[in-house]
From TrEMBL:
<dbReference type="InterPro" id="IPR011049">
    <property type="entry name" value="Serralysin-like_metalloprot_C"/>
</dbReference>
<protein>
    <submittedName>
        <fullName>Hemolysin, chromosomal</fullName>
    </submittedName>
</protein>
<dbReference type="InterPro" id="IPR050557">
    <property type="entry name" value="RTX_toxin/Mannuronan_C5-epim"/>
</dbReference>
<dbReference type="GO" id="GO:0005509">
    <property type="term" value="F:calcium ion binding"/>
</dbReference>
<dbReference type="InterPro" id="IPR001343">
    <property type="entry name" value="Hemolysn_Ca-bd"/>
</dbReference>
<keyword id="KW-0964">Secreted</keyword>
<dbReference type="InterPro" id="IPR018511">
    <property type="entry name" value="Hemolysin-typ_Ca-bd_CS"/>
</dbReference>
<dbReference type="GO" id="GO:0005576">
    <property type="term" value="C:extracellular region"/>
</dbReference>
<dbReference type="Pfam" id="PF00353">
    <property type="entry name" value="HemolysinCabind"/>
</dbReference>
Length: 619
């Protein structure tokens, strides 16, 4: 079998958090199992993971004496920021008549301590101060909360604002019973399994799908027409998403399935994400005199396990926990019975290879697989950061961020994503993304002598005013110097580089680049190797002081030749003046074209600089 069991906490050391079993609940928060309970008007909470305690029992939100009343926790929501919201109702019967109020308090995930005082809730779905604030609630991967309230299925944000709902979608649960319905997420759908409890009628188990906005998706699916058995145990329903996306639904009934007429039995079915039955009703166990608690399914990498308590009131008077294991196709693999085998009131799968079974004691069930989190990797939020008029360090995440430096010598780091970086005034340092996951960034230097590196992606770099240094990085970039004497390089791949005003130094870098010096005496650099490619210079003008700069200092001017010819696209479109040929500067030792000068045949000089010495190739 692919699991092992070990006791984690006994009844004595589980502590006061279990004082009120009727309203004891457990949740998963940040790879931790969090258990909460109440004693009178005081709430208690503790948390543990597969390494042991995260924090011991903490008291919080003390509402003092409530007389014959009580405090009931309805939900704990993981805020995904190191904190959790606890939603609860105070039923204060001191003095009578009882007053019902709803509250939320935020606790630190690692310590269990309050980050601020509890707040009374008077609006939204959490403001319902009837005896059923919520039948049940579940935190969703997108940060919202799904809830069952008097038969209505609702999706709301953590403040209780309704995103969407479906009226009369579920059957309302009787007071004090919180396991009659369960929710699982499969893809972009929510699957809810629930049991009905109507006076004088059979207690049926159903499955229904909903969209993430709370709207129903399809008809109700009948899982089992199952009255509670003669020993008085409610029909129950639980659901779990398997690793292949299918859903396993487990339930108890009283022998209404034709395969098993006994008084109490536990079952499962497997459904596809669209509600098609994959595996029909499969008997897990049955007994004739006694009861079995609700069967709790937990997904594993290769299938699922089901835990329940088997209790008989006749010989052999069994009262022990049972775990059955099944593969993804519903085939039985093996079981653990008795001893330290948990039945549990609830189960929390804290990570990929650990589940906690929680009742009056806590058992850790170790599953096969890597010790990884179950939480989806959420995209970073988009960051809109603005600095001050001083030197700032602003850093984006992995989304499409916008960073604005304003004044001062700022450092702006976009990281991955399609970022916009604006340096503003000052000598700024702007950097795009440093990994292959980066996409197109737009970087504006603003006034000042800026350093701009596009990094990965097909970026647009603008130096603007000042003597800037721009490097396109990895990608087919557009590099624009602006005014000032700029140093520009396209770096890798085929780039477009524009010097703008000023005496600029332009290096196309590796790849076949398109270069435009703009106004001023510009220098067009070629390192002298094949990987640098052949660069096209759009506006070489010797009269303005433009130079071709060769990186191989051992070369001589006699090793270069100038050829001229017309070039055109397949459609006949010329790159320059129709009456002037292009000039191709060829390095004869390798036969490589180093530069192609648009309308170069119209120049009276083509000046080449080697090791600081300037030669006219037309002389």
């Amino acid at each position: 079998m692919s699991f092992s069991i070990e006791p984690l906490y006994g009844t004595d050391d589980f502590g006061r958090v279990y004082a009120d079993q009727g309203h004891f609940r457990s949740y998963r928060v940040d790879d931790n199992a969090v258990v909460v309970g109440a004693d009178g008007g005081t709430l208690y909470i503790r948390a543990f993971d597969d390494d042991g305690p995260v924090f011991d029992t903490q008291q919080f939100a003390d509402h003092g004496s409530v007389g014959f009343g009580e405090v009931i926790v309805y939900h704990i929501h993981d805020n995904r920021d190191g904190s959790m919201n606890v939603y609860y109702q105070v039923r204060d019967a001191d003095p009578l008549p009882a007053q019902l109020t709803n509250w939320v308090v935020t606790l630190d995930t690692e310590t269990g301590l309050e980050t601020g005082p509890a707040t009374e809730l008077t609006t939204g779905i959490f403001g319902d101060n009837t005896m059923s604030m919520l039948d049940n609630a579940w935190s969703l991967p997108n940060g919202n909360i799904a809830a069952a309230i008097n038969g209505t299925f609702v999706v709301a944000d953590p403040d209780g604002n309704i995103v969407g709902q479906t009226q009369s979608a579920l059957t309302s649960a009787p007071h004090g019973v919180n396991w009659l319905n369960d929710l699982a997420v499969t893809g972009d759908q929510l699957a809810v399994a629930y049991a009905s409890h109507r006076a004088g009628a059979a207690n049926e188990v159903f499955l229904r799908f909903f969209n993430m906005d709370g709207s129903a998706n399809g008809d109700v699916i009948t899982v089992s027409e199952a009255p509670s058995n003669s020993f008085g145990v409610f029909a129950t329903a639980q659901i779990e998403t398997l690793t292949n996306g299918n859903l396993v639904v487990t339930w108890t009934d009283a022998g209404t399935q034709p395969e098993d007429p006994n008084d109490g039995s536990v079952w499962f079915r497997i459904y596809s994400p669209t509600g098609t039955e994959i595996v029909g009703p499969t008997l897990i166990n049955s007994i004739t005199t006694g009861s079995q608690t609700r069967p709790i399914p937990v997904a594993t990498e290769t299938g699922f396990i089901v835990s329940y308590v088997d209790f008989e009131i006749t010989s052999p008077f069994r009262n022990h926990g049972v775990i059955h294991e099944y593969d993804l196709n519903g085939n039985f693999v093996g079981s653990e019975v008795g001893g330290t085998t948990p039945g549990g009131m609830s189960a929390v799968r804290v990570d990929n290879n650990t589940a906690m079974f929680i009742g009056s004691s806590v058992f850790e069930v170790n599953l096969d697989g890597d010790d990884t989190s179950l939480d989806p990797v959420l995209p970073d939020p988009i960051r809109f950061l603005t600095g001050a008029e001083t030197a700032d360090l602003l850093e984006g995440g992995n989304n499409n961020d916008r960073l604005t430096g304003l004044g001062g010598d700022d450092t702006l780091i976009g990281n991955d994503g399609g970022d916009t970086l604006i340096g503003g005034d000052g000598n700024d340092d702007l950097r795009g993304g440093a990994t292959e996951d980066d996409i197109r960034d737009v970087l504006y230097g603003g006034a000042g002598d800026d350093r701009i590196d596009g990094g990965y992606g097909n970026d647009e770099l603008r130096g603007d005013a000042g003597n800037d240094t721009l490097s396109g990085g990895f990608g087919a970039d557009t590099v624009i110097g602006g005014s000032g004497h700029d140093t520009l390089t396209g770096s890798a791949f085929a780039d477009q580089v524009f010097g703008g005003d000023g005496d600029d130094f332009i290096n196309g870098g590796f790849g076949h680049d398109l270069l435009n010096g703009g106004a001023g005496a510009d220098r067009f650099y070629h390192i002298g190797i094949a990987d640098h490619g052949s660069d096209w210079v759009q506006d070489y003008d010797a009269a303005s002081g433009d130079l071709l700069v060769f990186g191989n200092g051992t070369a001589t001017s006699s090793q270069f030749q100038v050829n001229t010819t017309h070039t055109a696209t397949a459609a006949g479109e010329r790159s320059g003046d129709d009456d002037v040929e292009e000039a191709f500067i060829i390095y004869r030792p390798t036969g490589q074209i180093m530069w192609a000068l648009v309308d170069g045949a119209g120049q009276s000089e083509i000046n080449l600089q080697i090791a600081g010495q300037v030669y006219d190739l037309l002389a």
